[in-house]
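Justification of resources, computational component.

The compute hours requested in this renewal are based largely on the per-chain cost of generating structure records like the one below. Each record pairs the submitted sequence with a full structure-token output. That output is archived, and it is also reused by downstream analysis tasks.
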Amino acid sequence: MDDIAPPPSPRLDVRDLRVVLALASAGTTAQAASVLHLTQPAVSRALLAAEDKLGTRLFDRTPRGLVPTAAGQRLVTGATRLLVELGDLEHLVRAPVTPPMRIRLVCECYTVYHWLPSTLMRLRKSLPEFEVALALEHTYSPVAALEAGEIDVALVTTSVVPRDRLEERQIFSDEVVFIMSASHPLAARKTLTPADLRENKLLIGQGASAESHWFMSSVFGRARPRLHIERLPLTEAIFDVARAGMGIAVLSEWISSPHLGKGDLVVKRLASGPLRRPWRLAWRREVDDAALRLLSALEATAPRGLLAG
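The structure output for this chain reads:
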């Protein structure tokens, strides 16, 4: 019989991965300790041990809590996938027939539906027992719907998620950009300023109030100028109105990219730098297993950096 090569011997174990994931979700050792049913010193020692095993820092200690470093974020992403696969293997060994898992999902920003359905289809092909139902009626209040048990999982951008009652994990960030006609007076500008946005009509879609608050704070800080905003229900209508020179469209990069090839529209950014919007998955703890499966699929297919420069 041929010799069987020994399996690799990783330095980290499942306990290390669970501690890192809990810290990434909770943001503090105290909250992570509550989730893991450990003492705070035990969690701190476990983190130091994991960092020592890898020889690298996994979290930055900031006034706002623990923030994953680049290495920490890579570990968080990979750990989720590994634990899901380990859980699948255990289920397969214990019971070959897996009962269906059904979750109700909503997205805080409707633009994600340009990308999400194809991801869900791929997920269903690989996990036919996994069923996701879209609950569009909760688009404008996803966190309240989660807390009420009306949905199980939400893709959120700017809403505040109470970590003492719900789980949360960041997946990726997209960039909000400004689209205008190539003949617009500002089209020759390299970048835009907050004053430019105050003086021109802004074309936006239907969105939650938290999204508007995030935009105002990110662009204008504490100032709250009166803006000339026109809300349009359809993405195509936003582009058409912008193409006619009747305003500046405020949209995600992934929505804008396919519309920029004809030369009649141009994309602009703020002089202060990219306007990054974080996307997070939030879920009720009762659906932890299903949510982690969905999280793993979303991390593998999330759109990133669709616009260069």
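Confidence is low (pLDDT under 50) at residues 305-309. The two ends are 57 Å apart (CA to CA).
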